[in-house]
Design goal:
Elements: E1 5-8, H1 18-24, E2 34-37, E3 43-45, H2 54-74, E4 80-84, H3 93-111, E5 116-123, E6 137-144, H4 151-166, E7 170-175, H5 179-190, E8 206-208, H6 217-228, H7 231-242, H8 251-256, H9 262-267, E9 271-276, E10 279-282, E11 288-289
Parallel strand pairs: 1-7
Antiparallel strand pairs: 2-3, 2-9, 4-6, 4-7, 5-6, 5-8, 9-10, 10-11
Helix pairs in contact: 2-5, 2-6, 3-4
Length: 310
């Protein structure tokens, strides 16, 4: 079997500036014509949702981390964090995705089809001494249903497959022992502001296998967004994310985000509303709704609604 290098991930290495994340977690370019109607009757402007917007990108990163932690707490936690790198700066996104798919096909063939994974795509900064100024694609993967006694054997299989597919010999392994550890892994490895994809790159950075999440992902996202509209919970989430070096987000806070019954989850949805010729319309039904600048919604007529992300 080909030789390859295994680097054990250090829990304190590569922590992002979460103080900076907390300050930027607000859209800088909210829509002037589109709003979300919240279940409590409030309106907030639609965020731009662009990857190059620090606020939207950060809010999505935190949401992704919470969705992963909630899934780990309520359904099943990932056993392993695995980083897959590339050696060739010309590796295309398509070739990289195909290489990841090959790795997990081989793992499932050996250890069962119930093995699930979530691939998180990033790019290096291009600032390293040996980078030549080029940003290289890499992935951090969360893996479920791989017993700990098989990790060493599986790592040899991954290393051999990855080297054959990409030529890269460096992979990193981290054992995850709790739902909080899953959140910590994501924040340490996938929420680094300087490793987000280049502005001209298109593709999905959050790529779960079909069997990774225990509940429909849209339902989980809706629920997390509803919880994060509570300013008290939002402050605690950011405070705990910032304390990852002390041991990660406590399970008690993740428990507060617990999923409700499906009916309640539907009730938490925000409704998209657009302005047409100065009037507000429900995009779902087409019916006209009240002007969000009316004082009944806590806003002065003619003023801009307060910024917010849903």
């Amino acid at each position: 079997m080909p030789a390859f290098t295994t680097v054990m991930a250090h829990p304190d290495r590569g922590l992002p500036s979460l103080g900076q994340i907390s300050q930027n977690a607000r859209c800088r370019r909210p829509s002037k014509n589109g709003f979300w109607l919240l279940p409590d009757g409030r309106y907030v402007p639609m965020s731009c949702g662009r990857r190059d917007c620090p606020g939207c990108s950060t809010a999505k990163s935190v949401e992704n981390a919470l969705v992963v932690g909630l899934d780990a707490l309520e359904f099943s936690a990932p056993d392993l964090g695995l980083t897959l790198t590339t050696a060739n700066r010309y590796t295309s996104s398509a070739d990289f995705r195909n290489a990841i798919a090959l790795v997990f096909r081989r793992l499932r063939r050996h250890y069962g089809s119930e093995l699930a994974y979530l691939a998180l795509i990033e790019f290096t900064t291009g600032l390293g001494e040996r980078s030549g100024g080029f940003r290289r694609i890499h992935a951090h993967c969360l893996i479920k249903n791989l017993p700990i006694q098989l990790h060493s054997e599986a790592l040899q299989l991954v290393g051999a497959t990855w080297k054959k597919a990409t030529g890269a010999t460096r992979i990193e392994l981290e054992v995850l022992r709790s739902p909080a550890a899953a959140v910590g892994y994501m924040v340490r490895h996938h929420e680094k502001l300087d490793q987000r994809p280049p502005a001209d790159w298109s593709g999905m950075t959050f790529r779960p296998s079909k069997n990774y999440f225990g509940a429909p992902l849209p339902v989980m996202r809706t629920h997390v967004r509803a919880k994060m509209r509570n300013e008290s919970i939002k402050r605690r989430v950011y405070a705990d994310l910032a304390d990852l070096a002390e041991g990660g987000m406590p399970d008690e806070l993740l428990s507060e985000l617990a999923l409700p019954a499906m009916k309640k989850a539907r009730e938490e949805r925000a409704i998209p509303v657009k302005i047409v010729e100065g009037r507000f319309f429900h995009l779902g039904t087409g019916e006209q709704v009240a002007d969000p600048r009316d004082k009944a919604f806590g806003l002065v007529a003619g003023s801009s609604p307060a910024h917010g992300a849903v």
